[in-house]
Every structure is written in C-alpha cells, then in structure tokens.
Amino acid sequence: MTQRLIAAFIAVPLLLALLTIAFFAPVPFATYHPGPTFDVLGTADGEEIIQVNGAKTYRDDGQIRMTTVSVSQEGVDKSLTDVLKDWIDKDDAVYPYDIVHPPGTTAAQEEVEGQVQMVSSQDNAIAAALRELDYDVKPALEVLSITPGRPADGALAVRDIFVSVDGVELTPDEAGQQALLDVIQGAKDGQKLQFVVLRDGKEVTVPVGTKEVTDEDGTTHREVGIQLGVGFVFPISVRVNISDRIGGPSAGLMFSLAIYDTLTPGSLTDGADIAGTGELDAEGNVGPIGGIQQKIAAARQVGAELFMVPADNCGDALGADNGDTRLVRAESFEQALSSIQKWVKDPDAKLPSCEDAS
Q1: 342 contacts 349 by C-beta, under 8 angstroms
Q2: Sequence-ordered list of residues with C-beta below 8 angstroms from that of 86, at least 6 positions apart, any chain
Q3: Residues 245-258: pLDDT tens digits?
Q4: Rounded Cα gap, residues 131 and 123, in angstroms
Q5: Of 62, 208, 285, 342, which is least packed with CB atoms within 10 Å of its CB?
Q6: Domains of the chain (ranges plus CATH)?
C-alpha cells in the first residue's frame, strides 16, 4: 500500500467527521417560521374570544385572523443543516441569535415581556374600537404584570386600575407614576399600603405590603412587585380571551377590528376571511412588527383574501409570497376599517397598497 493511499484512508474519515461536525454543530442563529393563525371572531376552548358585557353583540359570518410567527426558542441550539434549510425556504427567515434573543435575557423574561405587551395591545385595541363607536374612554394607571413572590402577588391583579394609594390620587401620567413610587419608597417595614383600585368595574381597597430589594449596584429600594402602564377605564366590559402562551403586541389591529365587528350589526368582512397584523398605540396608529413575511405566508396558507400590512413593514412585505392574498397598507385603525368596508362593497376598489408607499 502506497503512502498516498494510506494518507487517503486516514484523511477521508477525518474529513467526513469534520463535515459531520460542521453540519450538526450549533450555530449562532435563530429562525422564524409561519405560525398558526387565529380567527378572533371565533371561539377558544368553547368560549367566544371577544367577550362583551354591557352592550349588545352581533355574531355574524366572516373571519378576522390574527397571525403569529413561530420563533426558535431561547437557549435551543440550531445546527447548520437546520439553518440552511430555513434559509432556502422562502417562507422562513434566519437572523443572528443575539438579535432575536438579546444577551442577558432569559426565556422567562421574554415570556413576561410578551405578556405585558399583549395586555397593552388588547387595551389599545379596545380603546380604538370603542372610540370609533363614540364611547367615552378615559386613560388610567394600570397593572400590566405582577412579579411572583413579591407583595403584590395574590393581592393586586393584572388590569387593576389605580385610583389612589394611602389617600394619594394616582393620575394616568408620569406624575401619577411618580406619586405611586414615592408612597412605596416611603413605606416602613411591615406597613400595609392601602390601594384603591377598579377591578371588574368595581372599586375595591387592597392592602399591600412592600419589600426592600437590593439592586446589582448595591443600592436598595422598596417595591410591591408590579409593572405599571397606561390603561383605560371603559364604559363597557370587553375582554379578549386569548391563550397566555401567545404574547407580544402585534395583534392589536386585528383585535380592534374584531371588537368593532362584534359590536356592530352585520358582518364587517361580508363573510370573507381577512388576516393581518400591526401594533396599535393608544391613538389607533398602526406600528411595525416583526416577521411580516412569515405572517403573510401563514395568511396565504389559510386562504385569507386580504392581509392588513403596517405601513412601516411594506418594504419587507413586498418580498413575501402572498399568493392570491391581497396586501393592504394600514397606517391606522380607521384606515384599515375603511379599506375593508370599501373592499366589501367593491372587491376591485383601489385600496392603500404597499406598492404606493415604495
């Protein structure tokens, strides 16, 4: 046997081993895939998703679908083979891992942040729909999340609306938030602060203690264990019955359209299947979201006829495979609502498009 043949016998297995390692070793990337869509006008576990008390509701035909993205989990390794497969598939996307999962952020923290965003998303959606229907909607200081194990856990509840604490009125602005922090920081060991909150439309008084916490820099502060935000006092009760496993702000626009449809006679979509996405702010403006191409693919896969695209996502949306699904640019709740109403009257009507914005 020649030296060259011996070298080949040694080199080939080593090369194959290196290729195997290269293809299956973890790589620093995360992936997006089209996720499931949910008809917000439908039901979940046998219950209506849009639940209303205090006003007449109308359950008609048609579907208004929120769309989701399936994101590779934090801490789960992806191989080069996985990444290449997702990179080739036009409906999937590959991003550097640290962009999708910022360093220092745990999966639990991402979940909490997603739920906080979902609460705000639903509140803004309810406000936009009710304002369009001429209901009086007032801003208020609200509990967005509660830290397990902290004093507020089991005492306060997510969506509690603050009225006052220890006699200090809490307004829905920075001054109100600062007033709350000042009362908490001034509390003594063992003292119970008297929170007056609106819960399910009723005013209740809740005693809550405080806990002294040491920060990473060695300083200490007192807290009750809540995250605050601006919510609303609504004249009727509206609830979006969505699984806790779904987080993020991007369904706001579709929630608002479904709430409006539920509170008005007839089918907003005239029986058609309409999908979309978009973060909604307190004024009803539609903001950009992540994973637009995957959400369009998800809508195409279920046969949606229209897809509402946030204006700032139009550039990426034009690169998606939308099939027969018509893309409609949405800058606000009012514009999206008007586009659907025009399309129902005339499917060939000129609607705001991403091509016009490019």
Answers
A1: yes
A2: 31, 33, 92, 93, 94
A3: 788 889 999 999 99
A4: 12
A5: 342
A6: 29-71+80-100+109-131+236-357 (3.30.230), 138-233 (2.30.42.10)
